[in-house]
Give the backbone structure.
Amino acid sequence: MKIDVILNNRTEYDFSGKTVVVIDVLRATSTILTALVNGCLEVIPVCGVEEALTLRKTTAKGELILGGERKGKTIPGFDLGNSPLEYTKEKVGGRRVVLCTTNGTQALVQTAGAEEVLIGSFLNITKVASYLKETARDITLFCAGREGRMSLEDLLCAGKIIKKILFMAKNGTVPELTDSGRLAMIAYKHLVNKVKGPVIAIAQTEHGQYLSSIGYNEDLRYCGQVDFLPQLAIYQNERIMLDKPCYRN
Amino acid sequence: MKIDVILNNRTEYDFSGKTVVVIDVLRATSTILTALVNGCLEVIPVCGVEEALTLRKTTAKGELILGGERKGKTIPGFDLGNSPLEYTKEKVGGRRVVLCTTNGTQALVQTAGAEEVLIGSFLNITKVASYLKETARDITLFCAGREGRMSLEDLLCAGKIIKKILFMAKNGTVPELTDSGRLAMIAYKHLVNKVKGPVIAIAQTEHGQYLSSIGYNEDLRYCGQVDFLPQLAIYQNERIMLDKPCYRN
């Protein structure tokens, strides 16, 4: 088993035969997971605003919630932004969400050809790592990054996933790591452990600082919570659903 | 002053007003510097094989040396490959070289708009860092990577440049680092120091292992030599020359 990490979504990759985990800690994958755990039936990731608006036009009124952001802020005409805290049971329970974000949903749509695609975040990190440990396939941790750049918070999450897999595999076959896999491990070890957890490390990243500057401090604290939503979410047939629906009351 | 690191050459960046250092440790920038120190008059980086062949057709016989690689191996019809050890005084002294490599020359050509562009490698790392310390501009360390992926050896070189700049700046204004700048520092500190120098660290990277598998072990040792060629090379008007020509005998 080989573990690779992709640092942004601007290069085309061949995902055939692979298990891919899309990671966009701030905030798409944290938001997707939150929506699903709060009873959202499915999340449909799309790349363009027009695509989202068209999808709503073709469905019955109130059936689809549109969520998404540009430069971190809610898209005009959309119901919700990209803050996980907006995706409450009251707002998304029993409904479907179309999500359109700058980086995370683009990465999801790029995974065509993969054997399976999971949603990764700090919120469900152990669940994801445990699942990956059992797969016999090569693994790609696909960090969405930010407008073609590496985002440190995504790489830190990838590093922690790898660390957990290696720990679980210590008495068996140790997975092989690519250069970027080694880098993610090193980054996690020295940037997260040093500050005693992901919440502070996330707040120190460029995107963390940007979100803080536009008023989303609560999101940083929320998205850094390890194993707060221990669920597996799968992207299949252009939509994301929980592996085993298990809604919070 | 802000220091940023770019991890590969597949995204377009705005370099206006910036000092850019292109880094392709294995092997383009190590090779360029070696050729120039061995008396090559100038190196002209080009992206395509056809472009290189056309340039030769339009010049007098023997005036231009064509060098370059595809998948690490010499391009058919070219005089030299991309091993710095081929660029001896006998072969390139007093002549001009057209260089066409998979990643490094592509990165160089992408720097259009930058205020100035330098050639970075372990071979001239202190010279580059000292120069950068004196500039008042924002700095971009542009790691060429490998076919759109991050290359660890380039990031390690960037990390060491940053470390040197910070050390020199410790009593003055400390430059600001982006996420990728912090990442490069961490990578250098924990992957190079741990193995006591760049030579072993380079040999452990994916591209290092590939070059070793096709017989270029000597190149790995050569390219990991810190400050072996303490010269500044500048890319300007589509060609690279030494800042102050200083040929070895």
In short: Residues 2-242 of chain B form a domain with the putative 2-phosphosulfolactate phosphatase fold (CATH 3.90.1560.10). Residues 152-168 of chain B form the longest helix (17 residues).
